[in-house]
Specification:
Layout (H helix, E strand, L loop, with lengths): L18 H4 L5 E5 H18 L2 E5 L9 H4 L5 E4 L2 H10 L4 E5 L5 H10 L2 E4 L2 H13 L3 E5 L26 H10 L9 E3 L8 H15 L8 E3 L13 H15 L2 E4 L3 H4 L3 E13 L2 E6 L3 H4 L2 H4 L10 E2 L5 E6 L8 E7 L8 E5 L19 E5 L5 E5 L3 H6 L6
Parallel strand pairs: 1-16, 2-3, 2-9, 3-4, 4-5, 5-6, 6-7, 7-8, 8-9, 11-13
Antiparallel strand pairs: 1-10, 10-11, 10-15, 12-14, 13-14, 16-17
């Protein structure tokens, strides 16, 4: 029996494979209620200490069966469009529903106003088009700003402040818009910025300086400031003290209610992807284990970001005696999860457990190559597992055409 894996993604399992996991079908996602509750307590305590409001960004985690675990600690949900707004309103009743979309559809706005409490617009043109109707419906109206302050390295795809970004309004754009239509300013209740991705609070402090420089004269006229997501608040070692100073600064200097809308922090290290080895092949010096889980289909961020997910009991290539490349079963040559090292080479039938799989997985997966979607299971604090949803051929077929 290997020594327990003490890394954070496996802490809720005690760093081992509990016996109940061996009985689950593979591939499957396993959501950990105990780990979710831990994250919720950290976020709830932050809200209590500072008076800020924390929202669940559903784009990262939208497994609504587990919303009751998080709801006691959160002020509500954040949505990226109509369907997520409705999901948040239905599944976290009583919570606030905030929506931001890069561009809203006119034919959806009436229904969106039924579900949303806050609506954030991306551009002055969208604010002019839909802001009056939102205010008439009693909604709180905001504008996403672009402080033109990049703090990310190596993740340009996730940098809303990159040159030529479509996300957020720069101060120059706002100045020109108000000069052409002075009534725009009177539509706003708040400002929103989202510039971070898996970052610590030092990046927020730098960003807040840029916000103050570019938009500080507007903020005293606002009721709220939404600092967006990308805050890795529940990660071990995260700088909570600096985050709290940033919140206090905004409250003191501008008299605003502060919102945070983390997605990853809500469900960080709170899920697993269970998979089994189907075959092991040798190509020259490279040993490849083919799994029943696919990077392309079941954890697409592995290829999109890209990144290498943590694997229970495994280490980086070369650290342990046997280095093996783990890959999926699809026809995509690049359906590769990564190179890992093991004490002994994996064999067909072996169970592997990837960590930190609650976020950006079930909400992004797909059925390329006719790959079945993994079932979604939940594990309670006592270790009991239950199936939330399983999928079959009908789920694959009916999304491609008319049901027959």
């Amino acid at each position: 029996m290997p020594a327990p894996d003490t890394r954070a993604p496996f802490a809720a399992l005690g760093g081992t494979v509990p016996p109940e996991l061996a009985a689950l079908p593979t591939p499957c996602y396993l959501l950990d209620e105990g780990a979710l509750a831990r994250n919720g307590r950290i976020l709830g305590a932050l809200a209590q200490r500072t008076g800020c409001k924390v929202l669940l960004a559903q784009k990262a985690f939208s497994n609504y069966d587990l919303y009751p675990v998080l709801a006691p600690y959160l002020a509500g949900t954040e949505a990226s469009g109509l369907y997520e707004a409705r999901l948040g309103a239905e599944e976290m009743p009583g919570g606030e529903v905030h929506v931001f979309c890069a561009a809203y559809r006119a034919d959806e706005m009436e229904e969106l106003l039924r579900w949303a409490d806050h609506i954030v617009f991306n551009s002055p043109a969208q604010l002019a088009a839909f802001g009056p109707a939102a205010r008439a419906a009693g909604k709180s109206v905001g504008l996403r700003i672009n402080p033109e302050c990049s703090t990310q390295e190596g993740h340009a795809i996730y940098d809303p402040c990159a040159p030529g970004s479509r996300l957020g309004t720069t101060r120059a754009q706002w100045h020109a818009a108000v000069a052409a239509d002075p009534g725009l300013a009177g539509l706003l209740d708040g400002l929103h910025f989202h510039t971070l991705c898996e970052q610590d609070a030092d990046a927020l402090a730098v960003t807040l300086d840029a916000v103050a420089e570019k938009f500080g004269d507007l903020l005293p006229k606002m009721q709220w400031l939404n600092m967006g997501g990308g805050h890795h608040i529940t990660r071990p070692g995260y700088d909570l003290a600096t985050l709290e100073r940033c919140i206090a600064r905004a409250q003191r200097d501008w008299g605003v209610t502060v919102y945070l809308e983390p997605g990853e922090a809500c469900a960080l290290n709170a899920g697993y992807l269970l998979t089994r080895v189907l075959d092991v092949v040798q190509n020259g010096d490279t040993t490849v284990a083919i799994l029943d889980a696919s990077a392309a289909c079941h954890m697409p961020d592995v290829i999109e970001m890209p990144y290498r997910p943590p694997l229970l009991y495994a280490a980086d290539a070369g650290e342990k005696p046997c280095t093996v490349r783990l890959a999926g079963p699809t026809c995509l040559a690049g359906d590769v999860i990564g190179d890992y090292s093991f004490d002994a080479p994996p064999r067909p039938g072996d169970l592997l457990v990837f960590g930190d799989m609650a976020i950006y997985t079930t909400c992004k997966n797909n059925t390329f190559n006719g790959m079945p979607l993994p079932a979604i299971w939940a594990r309670d604090a006592a270790g009991a597992c239950r199936c939330l949803r399983s999928f079959g051929y009908g789920d694959f077929k009916t999304r491609l055409g008319s049901p027959r």
